[in-house]
Amino acid sequence: MTEKAEMVKEMIRQLGDDAVLYRDEDLLTYECDGLTVYRGMPIAVVFPSSTAEVSGVVKWLYENDIPFIPRGAGTGLSGGATPLGGEVIISLVRMKKLLHLDYDNREAVVQPGYINLALTNSITNKGFYYAPDPSSQSNCTIGGNVAENAGGAHCLKYGVTTNHVLGLEVVLHNGEVIDIGGVPDTPGYDLMGLLTGSEGTLGIVTAITVRILKNPEGKETAMAYFDTVEDASYAVSDIIAAGIVPAAIEMMDEIAIQGVERATKPAGHPEGSKAVLIMEVDGIAAGIEEQIKDMVSVCERHNVTEIKVAKNDRERGRWWANRKTAFGAMGAISPDYLVQDGVIPRSRLSEVLANIADISAESGLRIANVFHAGDGNLHPLILFDARNEGETDLALKVGSQTLEACTAAGGSITGEHGVGIEKKEDMRLVFTEREIDRQLNVRSVFNPNNMLNPDKQFPKPARCGEVKQAVGSGEAHQVVGQG
Questions:
Q1: How many C-beta atoms surround the C-beta of residue 295 within 10 A?
Q2: Of 18, 146, 158, 367, whose Cβ has the fewest other Cβ atoms within 10 Å?
Q3: What three-state secondary structure class fits 88?
Q4: Across 357-448, where does the E strand assignment appear?
Q5: pLDDT in tens, 112-145
Q6: DSSP 114-145
Q7: How far apart are the first and last CA of the chain?
Q8: SS3 of 431, please?
Q9: pTM
């Protein structure tokens, strides 16, 4: 019996016939995640339904030196769930239960395959919601959010995933199950902080305790239009400098506006607008209108051309649908796109956006900007046509150049999408070799043989023999990335 056949037989024994995929035609779906310019083939995909099943699968794979990759809904944008070749994908989509609700203590316990927006939908009738709201929240899983430390439009006020995770159940590289957190101000090292954002390289999360919040008493949303990106950028900085704490400030530039207006969720943005800010404040009802007025006043000092305030929840929802479908909307104006997510200080928005415009002009590729302006988390969308020879490579090069522009301004290479395959070499823009080496030492404590989501998140170390590759894995190859 071949090694693969033996592995498949064991996985079927543990999980059942309907929980194991191993034929090539069935594995094609799992060649990549939301970043489609890199692809690789797993040797199998398995679908456990419980922590015990995850533990059993991992233990057997560990004992047989077969690497494995945890995967959520596959909406990741950095290749974090993409095989390099020879791994087993452990899909957690069947672990999709809401396990426990505690309204008194404002907590919920979910399995990793539970959809982000489903949590808010499950508790909204009780006046509660879950704050992290990535644009893919109707599809992405909370387990995947933990892996990438996902953010969202409202993280300006409420923070990213790590600020809402209270406890984790984790299967380690050898199948051992541990519980961390769960008690406020747990003494010792912040292992939850370490696991959150570790991109599946330190363990597989099988249950998550999260914080839930009461719905705010009041909420107001406004859109402000500008004739220049510079004016919009300075308005963002001055809103924060004025001591206003919005729930969200989002920006789209002219190319992004063109995309969303031609796609499925148009919002009626005025034709020819160079930039739009979507601004939202929430909290205690008293004073909400004053906050909006203060923000409008700041925008007026920066040559705003038009301001709209949402008349009702329906209009507010339409505006947010327009913004949150912006990535996919680029398919209306370009056959392919690549998205980055560098972070910069708010005060340098105008400067970095000007640098990105220069990169666009020099490369000949259009770049649409749609991003979380309030916390400086940029999302340059590089538009290209993979049918043209060399354009995919050029788009990848341009993506790295935008990250260089961010780090040169004192920023970082990712705010919420993670590093994965795509940006692991760009880690050298942020860290020295010595600093990368120290982080690899931490990884080796949890993942000593590099079998848990192997060769992701960090560049190849300068020193030799740092990791052992259990099953021969080649470099991922570049292919067409469809918008």
A1: 25
A2: 18
A3: strand
A4: 367-372, 380-384
A5: 999 999 999 999 999 999 999 999 999 999 999 9
A6: SBHHHHHHHHGGGTEE-----TTTTT-BHHHH
A7: 42
A8: coil
A9: 0.93
